[in-house]
Here is the input.
Amino acid sequence: MSHNLAPTLPQELCDMVIDQLSSLRKRRGALTRCCLVSKAWLHRARPYAFRRAKVITRKADRATDESPGPSLRGFAAFLASASGATVRASIMVFTIYGEYNAPPGRGVSLLSLASTLALLPCLDTLALKGARIVGLIDWRHVMPSFKTLTFEDFAKVEGPDTFLRLISLSLRLESVDIPRSAKVFGRCDFGGDCAWPTWSPPKCTSLRNLTIHNVDILDIFARETIFKIQQDTLTSISLEVPVTAWSMRDDMQSPRELISHAALSLEHLSLWLHSSSDDDTGTPYPGLGLAACSSLVTLELELSFTSVCLQAFVCGLLDELFGRAPEHACKLRRIILWAYQAEDLAGIDTALDAHISGETPVRVGLARGSMRAQAGMSPQDRNAFIQAMPRLGARGLLYVYADEDKSPGASLGACAREDEEDVDDESLEETDGDRQENTDNEERKLDD
Here is the structure.
């Protein structure tokens, strides 16, 4: 076998093979073997082998504003060395793991993190998994760095001021994902000591996708960080919105400010709405600023513990959504409803049927589970969801939403036909089995 595959396989095909291997769960071993095939494959496979890097902060790590922990310091020293120089341009995903119960003061210095990121010119994603970020930086450390920032597994930030600077660390930032488990310690005196100083970094002009499923961090983001984002650049927003009598009396200020800030560019809006099952107060809908959204194409609603208060909120939201100017309302194409049980869809069928006219090209998708973890929908679940939406079902406006490819999915009629075909196939298999059993019985009788 020739060790030089270049004359045999085109370079494009070799790159496709290596790219497919890099997507495997146990990719490191496969890519290591590719490096042993030939020198040409070594140069092609090595960048894929080092696309993902991670640093695990040990229990002994202690960091201050100026002094990083030994784990991150060792990784930065490797990147600055001659050996690290050959791989640092290949790293696209950088993950920092931390302790779940790390005490205050122990974590990753924001200053040392910025210094390390400066050594990763092609970095695409910075992921914080349980890590605690401490310390402050000034605008001189802002750089063209990562495009995606994710908080995972109870990631923590030591103070709102540190959080604001972490968000503004990269000039190329396009996506921020903050789950409910994230934590920002301390309180922010809005407009006080936590306000941005005069030497703060320039506005972020590239942020497109924003997910905040944490009410406390949403307040910080909407009141202190929003003016550092260029207006009308966000195209996708996903928010957690608790719907209770108390939150509606508070006027929903934070989500409304964020939505209004992106009114002209917002195309996809996802709202995780949850309430208390015993909340039976029909508080008036305060408004979320949807009336000014001129480009909205998709609206996703996740419903949990539907109550009288939540039903009133959703009805008011739909009134605001379909009450926009006709040239804006006609751009809406899909409304996706997430729920674990059909009971959570109570009252929505009537409200949507009243708003969706024959000229409106809107379809309603049904999905079981949550936006972060879609659950399977059995035929029994599908029938229950259909029965909860009889008016839209009769008009042919319902479909099963497929989250895997963000496509409209299969229509309910097609799914019903597939179920019938499955039943027919099972009947045929049973018939074949019965026929074989009868044949065996006849053969035994002849032998006797």
User: Anything to note?
Assistant: The two ends are 62 Å apart (CA to CA). The first strand starts at residue 52 and ends at 56. The chain has four domains: 1-49, 52-194, 231-410, 420-448.
